[in-house]
Structures are given as C-alpha cells and as structure tokens.
C-alpha cells in the first residue's frame, strides 16, 4: 500500500526534529545578513528529502549513533548552498513559491551566504572525523560544481544529446542523493556491497527526481511547482522533454524549438508546449524516470528487510508521483 512522504517522515520523526534543530543552531552568526539569508532559505526548505535519505539509510543498516544527524544537516547545507548559487546563475526570481534570496538581497549576498553554508557543512563533517565521509562529501561537492559548469556549457545549445543531459543531472543532482545514502553505510562501517547498493539507489533516485522536475517545468503551474512554467526554456536549457521533442519534430516546429533553445525566452512557449505534447515528450521522459526509479529499488536488494528499507522503496515510488 502506497504512503505519503509525510508518513515516511514519521518513521524517523525524532531524528528529523534533531536535524532541524542542529541546522538552526549551526546557522547562528554574528553577521546579521548571514542570519537573515541563511534562515530565509532553510525555513523555506521544501521537503528535506536529502536529509531524510541520510537518516533512513543509516537506520536501514542498523546504525545507533548520532553522526547521521550531523551528516543530514551537512547534506542540507550543501544542497541549499547550491540553490543559492544556482538562482544567481539562472537569474531566477521564484523558488519553492517564494522570492529567491538573490531577488530580495542581491547576487553578491546570495553567493557569499552560499559560501557560508558550505563552510558550515565542512565544520560539521570534520566533527564526525571519518576520512571516508569527508572524501565522499568532497567528491560530491566537486561533482556538483562540474555539473553546473556542464549545464552552463550546454545552455543555448540545441545539439545537446540525451547522453549530455544525463551527464549533467548525474553530477548536479544525483551525486548528492548518492552521497546522502552512502553516508549511512559508511558511519556504520558496512562492507562495500552495502555501501555501493545505497550509493546506486541514491544515484538512480536522483536521476528520477531530476527528470520529473524537468517534466514539471512543462506541465505544472507556478502555484503548484513553486517556480514559473517554462523557466528551463526561458534560460535556454535543453532538458530531456525538449531534447526529445526536438529530435521527434519536423519543419517549422523543429525550427521553433531549435531557435528557442538557441536564444532562450518564452516568445513561442504555447506552441512549444503543444509540440512537446504532440511528440509524446513528457510521456517519454516519465518512462525514463520510471526506469531510473525501478533501478533504484532494485539496487536495495542486498539490504536486509526493515521498515527503513521499505521507506526508501516508497520514496523511489513517490518520486514519480510528485507535482512539486
């Protein structure tokens, strides 16, 4: 029987509460603007999905300590730092239904507070004092940065392939999901088989999550999604629905998409949305997300049966059903 994300969170309710408390404590700074922006982005924090994965993965391998709380906070700080930087790069004005920090306080402040969140993440991870934890998180942070640069390189490039797209999303999104899940195994000193299983689960889950995110950019409204319809098109980002629609259209419609990616903007948004529907691009992308979610669930086979493993499976299934 399917359950909601809210019900999944109840399984580790106390740990999530402890994580939220640590996040708020760690945001404390004697620099007022750091406090303002830090609290603004973390209190509008959305689902807390990545910290939830840390907590569930740790419990799924029978971890009984407290390091998972700190690492859940670390993952959330890294995630929010990337959001602050992303919104500057993308010149976004709406995030999770709220004005972006860069719109409220400006680009410079957003970038610098993003740096502060990274530094807080580093401070917390050193308190755990496990070298492999630091290696995994350092690698994830590096991969995210590379993913953002790759995405920048592919902006306004209608020649971007599906392979290019997957290279971007694996680095900028899925890598942090994978790291979040692997940490649970590492802090409980599990063998490489379990660690790799959780890592592969996180990677495929992250891919599914991002593909659905890109589908919603062409099928949700700003009130539901918390950002503007067609933002990716406006920024000239060739995401999977657009890549598929371009490859499967002809004549004027193909030229219209080609031009829209090249120049960005929403001049022909309605026509392009119709082409995306007519080519079956959204259904194709959803099918790709389904395949990724299935791979995520399959990756969990080496884990022993538990409520926490079932919760991880439910999250993979829920990733396909979300509308925001």
Structural write-up:
This protein has 324 residues and is mainly α. It has one domain (5-318): Farnesyl Diphosphate Synthase (Orthogonal Bundle). 74% of the residues lie in helices and 1% in strands. The protein is built from 17 helices and two strands. It has helices at residues 5-11, 13-26, 32-43, 49-60, 67-90, 101-105, 107-128, 131-154, 162-187, 192-216, 222-225, 231-234, 240-247, 251-263, 269-278, 281-299, 307-318, and strands spanning 94-95, 98-99. The longest helix is centred in the middle third of the chain and has 26 residues, at 162-187. The model has no long low-confidence stretch (mean pLDDT 92). Its cofactor is Mg(2+). Pfam families: polyprenyl_synt.
Helicity level, as a percent range? over 70%
The name of the CATH superfamily reads: Farnesyl Diphosphate Synthase
Instruction: Give the CA-CA distance, first to last residue.
Output: 22 Å
CATH architecture classification:
Orthogonal Bundle
